[in-house]
Amino acid sequence: MKSIIDDKNILHIGFDDTDSRYGRCTTHLAFKIVSNLKRNYSLNFLDYPLLVRLNPNIPWKTRGNGAICIRLRTDNNKDIERIIEDIRNELERCSYIGNGANPGLVFFEGLEIPNEIKEFYRFAMFDILSKQKALKIVKKNNMKCFAYGNGQGLVGATAALGCILESDYTFEVIAYRKSDNLQTSRKIDVLKVIDFDRSMYPYTFNCYDYIHKRVLIAPHGPDPVFCGIRGEDPKILLNGLKMLEIKEKLEGYLVYRTNQGTGMHLNNKLELANTKTYTSGFSRCKVVTNPYTIQGGHILFAVMDNSDTCLAAVYEPTGLTKIASQLHIGDFIEIGFGVRKATSKHTKVLNVEYILILKAVNIYELINPNCKNCGKRMKSEGKNKGFQCKRCKTLDRYGEKVKLLKPRTIKEDLYIPNAKAQRHLTKPLHRYGMEKNGWNRKTDVFLNWFEIFV
Ligand code: ATP
Question: Atom 27 (ligand 1): residue with closest C-alpha?
Fold first, then answer.
């Protein structure tokens, strides 16, 4: 029997770059689009909306280089055209076009996303892609697309559509403010945040920075986001929203499935000779100069792999400088990094995002030998003149300095930036070993992932 759900009823929607430094928010547009779809059409969502973070090292992002993908199945195939039209209108109305936003909006009809689009996403996580390349894919796969401003948003929109999140992923519930409250400051009970964070560990992350005593779930300024809570399970996150006992009347919330906290942008191995500016990745390499500190407390050292030598930089706010300063020539390490553009002062620099110390070499210091007669450390008589004991005056004309193993304070371990300096994609230490592996779109969508408060 032919399935009543044919390919034509399925629509994938990707969009990006609707906000700018001057305002608006792409996830809030997602919230509005979902609420309109739910209100006006008979349809099912095939997945949570995806909040897709792309290469964080591109220079033209507004904040966290986030894009959105929504996948749905309509009961009536005739609705598809109207849905596309509605979303286009909503995006035009809610984007900051002409004020720094360059939105891209793409639609793909059919069940399976073609591999070419999935590959585009894979590269968008660590490379720099052109809108021409996105356009080529869009045309080849008969996708509808709309681009505004300089059209760069097409890259993020197409990449988001190709993001399937089949292996590791996390969730974020974002609660939105009513427009009347946007100018007021957010009132969040710090103790309740800490209480939630402690009671739900390790199933939540980046709620509170215990070192700098800062709440991390809420942005500042006139953003429509009231707060965003991240973690492993939507039910725990919604419970977190309740535990916060937020007094402000909110517009509603939406749960996103996301690649945040997965470290995915650093998953590809880069040869040091082939690192392109603004790309992200990792390298296994040897430390070839001892670290030195520059103004601002940042640490620089050179690393080498089979292909080339590069300068690596560890910035003071990451909290990694203490570890970096203890590295030594010969140490074998893995670093995750983004490639900073070369300047007149420096060739390209690897901005370090994590350090994994694989092998800390033994370090020796050369010291004077002990007196063979009384055991006391001898004094040098001058270059090539041997040593004399100051206590018993024994002379040793042919004595040589001896090698003494210096204890290393550094441990072979993984080091990541402190919470305040982490990017959306940074994988928290406690998530190592907790990675998810698989997503079942038929059974895994939890019912209460969206709500509008009246
Ligand atoms: P917010 O997090 O507030 O939503 P943002 O940081 O996501 O904002 P955008 O305004 O979306 O910033 O700008 C990012 C721009 O970079 C978009 O135009 C997007 O298409 C583009 N982009 C994203 N990833 C890549 C990539 N790998 N190569 C080239 N362009 C990219």
Answer: 124
